[in-house]
Write a structure and sequence with these properties.
It is built from ten helices and two strands. With 227 residues, it is mainly α. The radius of gyration is 20 Å and the shape is globular. It comes from Algoriphagus boritolerans DSM 17298 = JCM 18970.
Length: 227
């Protein structure tokens, strides 16, 4: 067994992979948010449809998308492995008596939060990614060029109040997940210092509030516009 395999199979290696994949997914959230905010532009979806087309046809973006799916899978797998390891190694009595004083609610329930987010991702991918790739798509012309009307698919989904409510609730779970995961990733990578850690924690809290809120705002605004 090579040192790479030994490292990845160790508890420290699993935590490092969790941190690295988590930070990549955090970066992906920012990029995805910037693209999705174009849904709110007053151009009836033109900017978003052109953006979606460029994302679908750019070879670099396709490679990144495959990597993103791989990182999500790795993040889920290693989170399960670490959760099982922690449960086996931690005395039950100690865990029950000290959990509320030594950790936050988010850190104690990362498994639940992650499970809800995973369910959301599966529903989200089925409703959008799968339909766009394999479903019957409407098309729209801009200056003589035909584009998939992805905006119409999104607008139809966000006209459903139940889906909008589901989306908003899941963004709440994402906020709690990020509130612990952001700072925890930096700590795992050894980027913690008495001088900088408080700042990283504050940035993480701000990020965990701002990004999910903006994501949740999109379907809410589009639902109101559909009334």
């Amino acid at each position: 067994m090579s040192w790479v395999t030994k490292t990845l199979n160790s508890t420290l290696g699993k935590k490092l992979l969790m941190a690295l994949t988590g930070l990549f997914l955090i970066l992906f959230l920012v990029v995805h948010l910037v693209g999705n905010l174009q849904l709110l532009l007053p151009d009836e979806g033109e900017a978003f449809n052109k953006y979606a087309e460029s994302m679908a046809t750019n070879p670099f973006i396709r490679v990144v998308s495959i990597g993103n799916f791989a990182f999500i899978l790795l993040h889920v797998i290693y989170s399960i492995l670490l959760t099982r390891h922690n449960r086996k190694s931690r005395p039950i009595g100690y865990a029950e008596s000290a959990a509320s004083t030594n950790s936050t609610w988010s850190s104690r329930n990362m498994g639940i939060l992650g499970t809800v987010i995973l369910i959301f991702l599966l529903v989200h991918l089925k409703g959008f990614y799968y339909e766009i790739k394999f479903g019957e798509m409407p098309f729209i012309d801009y200056e003589g060029v035909s584009y998939k009307n992805v905006f119409a698919i999104v607008a139809a989904a966000y006209s459903n109040v139940l889906y909008v409510a589901f989306y908003v609730v899941c963004m709440g779970f994402l906020a709690f997940h990020l509130s612990h995961g952001f700072a925890s990733a930096f700590q795992t990578l050894g980027l913690n210092h008495v001088k900088y850690s408080p700042l990283i924690k504050k940035v993480g809290i701000g990020f965990s509030i701002l990004v999910p809120t903006l994501f949740a705002l999109i379907p809410v605004v589009m639902y109101i516009q559909s009334l």
